[in-house]
Structures are given as structure tokens and as C-alpha cells.
Design a protein that fits this description.
287 residues; mainly beta; Immunoglobulin-like; Jelly Rolls; five-stranded antiparallel β-sheet; 2 helices; disordered N terminus
């Protein structure tokens, strides 16, 4: 009896080993690869403004199924072979926050029918555009003699137009604050009607600063105006940085607003001697 039990156990172990070997013997799929080193944005400079952007991510679908989201530059594997449809969408960081990544709704998606070959690398440089439904409510690039911003009663300093030191054909707006002139605030000359139906509304701009400043909206209602900061920008002195500021929520919460101004402002705190803020390529966009 003991011999039978021993033989049974021995056969069972052998069977498990053989089954395990069969599993390891299965061929693993060989991926192909996609490399995206950079992306481009094409704009009509007259009607859509600058092509400056900060597309940080690519959202990828294959045959309608989500493949993944990848930070640019990237190279990623595709477990697929033969002809497939590839969809690429541009991703951004909302308000410059790394944990708030979305597909930017105003850029087009790119559809590519391609043939995936195992071990091959497909190099793609996506070129995005604004979709036709995008409405450009406000464009300001400071290229003209004047600009579409007005000084508020809070401001004791001015906004100036200066030439870029590298590209002298390009201009930007800049303000300076110091111990004698501590406060800057300018608002958009025009008041903008923005629908409070929850649709996407974004303010884009480039900035370079060695001192914090705020960006917000002035909510104009029937009997009063409410100044509401949306974001506080930290110093970024080395170069211009592009940012996408989401105005959708604040607008959706103010269904009784008549219209809005956009404002930029900063006040020098005690203990600081001066501050400098440059802004450029402002866009207010919505559907």
C-alpha cells in the first residue's frame, strides 16, 4: 500500500514538472516599437497665434483600444503584428501640474494606418493642429505698438513691451516691481462672454519670471465684480515656459456672470528688493 502511495506521488510530481516545462516552452510574442522624440504644432499666426506649446505626453490607442500614455520623448513596445490603426492624441499638464495630465481637447487627433513588424522601430513625429471648433476669443503677442491689457487702480507700475534679446523680431510684455513700486495688476481690455455649460475653456501663455505672480479672472455680475485668482506662478527665470490654465470650473460655478476679464498681478513682499515678469503669446480659447 505504501509503495502505491509513493508511486502515485512520484507520478504527480512528474506531471507537474512536465506541465511547467510546457508553459515555459511557449513562444513569447516579439514586439515592434514606436519612437516619438518630439511633436510639432502648426498654427495660423494671424487667426490662431503662436505655435509655442508644451505638449508633454502622447496618448496612444490601437484599433480603438487604449495602448498607454507616454511622456515625450519615448519609445514603447507594441504587441501587435500586421496592419493596425494607430491613434495619437496630445497630452498636457493642466495648470502645469504633473498629476493633472489630460488629452488637450483643442488639438486634433492623428490617425495612422500602419504595418507593425516584430523588432522593427517606427519613428513618428506627430504634427498637431487646433481643431476647427476652437474659438480664439483673445490673442495677444505684443508684436504691435499697443496691447490689449489695461492698468487697474491697484497697479503702481506699468507694463512695457520689449524686444527678445535672442530674436529681436519677437517682442513680449514685461513688468518690474521694486521697493518703490510694489504692485502690478493689468486686466484684459475686453470683457469676454464665456459659457457656463461645463465645456472646456483654457488660457494659454508663455511666461518667464524671477518672482511669483498670479493669473485670474474678474467675474463681472449685474451688481458687482469679483476678482478671483486661479493660479500662482512660481519663479521660472531661465527661459520662457508655456502653460495651459483651466478656466472651465470657475466659469461653470458662476452661471449668473455677465462676462469676464483676465488679469495678471503681483505684489512685492517684505524682504524682497525687486521682481521681473515677462508674458507672451496669450490665448483665451473655448468651444
Amino acid at each position: 500500500m505504501l509503495k502505491c502511495i509513493y508511486l502515485y506521488c512520484l507520478l504527480s510530481v512528474a506531471s507537474l514538472i512536465l506541465n511547467g516545462c510546457n508553459k515555459f516552452d511557449k513562444e513569447e510574442p516579439v514586439p515592434s516599437y514606436i519612437r516619438i522624440s518630439k511633436v510639432n504644432l502648426i498654427c495660423d499666426s494671424i487667426t490662431q497665434g503662436s505655435s509655442q506649446n508644451k505638449i508633454t505626453d502622447i496618448w496612444v490607442n490601437i484599433d480603438g483600444n487604449k495602448q498607454g500614455t507616454y511622456e515625450i520623448p519615448t519609445i514603447f513596445p507594441i504587441i501587435a503584428e500586421g496592419k493596425h490603426n494607430l491613434i495619437l492624441r496630445a497630452g498636457i499638464k493642466v495648470n502645469g501640474i504633473s498629476t493633472s495630465r489630460i488629452i488637450f481637447p483643442f488639438y486634433n487627433q492623428i490617425s495612422i494606418d500602419t504595418n507593425f513588424i516584430p523588432e522593427n522601430k517606427l519613428n513618428i513625429t506627430p504634427t498637431f493642429t487646433y481643431i476647427p471648433e476652437t474659438q480664439f476669443a483673445w490673442l495677444e503677442n505684443f508684436q504691435n505698438n499697443g496691447f490689449t491689457l489695461d492698468k487697474t487702480s491697484k497697479s503702481d507700475t506699468l507694463l512695457y513691451i520689449e524686444n527678445d534679446s535672442v530674436n529681436t523680431n519677437q517682442k513680449y510684455g514685461v513688468f518690474y516691481i521694486d521697493t518703490a513700486r510694489k504692485t502690478f495688476q493689468y486686466k484684459s481690455t475686453e470683457k469676454y462672454y464665456l459659457q457656463s455649460n461645463g465645456s472646456a475653456i483654457f488660457l494659454e501663455l508663455d511666461y518667464q519670471c524671477d518672482y511669483p505672480f498670479s493669473i485670474g479672472v474678474i467675474i463681472n455680475k449685474l451688481t458687482l465684480s469679483i476678482e478671483t485668482p486661479i493660479i500662482y506662478i512660481n519663479p521660472h527665470p531661465q527661459s520662457f515656459n508655456h502653460i495651459y490654465i483651466d478656466l472651465s470650473y470657475i466659469v461653470s460655478q458662476n452661471t449668473d456672470a455677465l462676462n469676464y476679464n483676465i488679469f495678471f498681478g503681483s505684489t512685492l513682499d517684505d524682504g524682497y528688493n525687486k521682481g521681473e515678469v515677462k508674458i507672451d503669446n496669450i490665448k483665451l480659447i473655448h468651444f
